[in-house]
């Protein structure tokens, strides 16, 4: 008919996104923290190229992060098969097996990465992380120092070495490493968090508060920094502010016994006795859950003693202390426990003084 367009009434279809564009899109979503959209983009890329190592390694890492371990491991092992010289799946699988407590398997992956890339700083840094977790501290220090030698501009290398030195109570040396890391990247909240932990161990509470606040300012959803800030405020006698930060840490996902124990003390110091008891009860229930799932009783004794005292169950708290073995007595944990026991004693929990007395007994009298 005259005047009618011969063009189709439907709009022309946009060209399908390329593999490269889909990966870029997924990476951008991942950077923003939108894991669902990142997975959707990578899923489309996988449909387009099911044998692409670039797709598989991204999906494998994402699935491990979202605790879909079996599927994530299978993708990473497929990358191993397709591209045996690629170290990325080796690093990811090594870190995964550390979390699973399978240290022999983790070391195998990290050593393979080192063999493939002996002059790559990342391989030495990740191996240092493994050695540190395995308690092989002298070897870990060598690995971290080699990572620094190969990658002197990477702040995480100094952070790794600093953390190791802090664990060895070489606090001044650790502080130097953290200061170097901060000069290299003054906007990394992880550095301020670790610095805060170090300063607390050095009993420099005011300086620790500054470090934690900086970490929270940069990353307001960092639950560990919120916890650190809450614990430092508690140590500084600022109970109301401490309770607020600890509650925020719980909201942000740090629902672990220690957070509730500290919250219970802060609330009791603030005069909120009912809320305090609820917090101690929550801590104790979480400890029971951990115990029923095979958690190490020695790792839980600090929180358990404090929670029991907060609930008025002094006899049970005495039993825990009386049952301690030599390998239960971590000096830093005992120091922190003692500080909180003194807080409880000052708040009228007289039984806390008896626990303190037991902790101060010579090892032969305390340990069975």
Report on the structure:
This protein has 368 residues and is mainly α. The protein has a domain of 84 residues. The protein is globular, with a radius of gyration of 25 Å. The N terminus and C terminus are likely disordered.
Write the layout of secondary structure elements.
Layout (H helix, E strand, L loop, with lengths): L18 H14 L2 H14 L4 H13 L3 H14 L5 H12 L3 H14 L4 H13 L3 H14 L4 H13 L3 H14 L4 H13 L3 H14 L4 H13 L3 H13 L5 H13 L3 H20 L4 H14 L3 H9 L8 H16 L4 H9 L3 H4 L2
Question: What does this entry show, briefly?
Answer:
The protein is 74% helix and 0% strand.
Would you report the number of β strands?
0
The count of helical stretches stands at: 21
* Morphology: globular
Return the average pLDDT rounded to an integer: 90
Task: Tell me about the largest β-sheet.
Answer: none
Give helix % range: over 70%
N/C terminus separation: 101 Å
Unreliable stretches, pLDDT < 50, 5 or more residues? Answer: 1-12, 362-368
Strand content: under 5%
> What order do the helices and strands follow?
HHHHHHHHHHHHHHHHHHHHH
- The quaternary structure here is single chain
Radius of gyration from CA coordinates:
25 Å
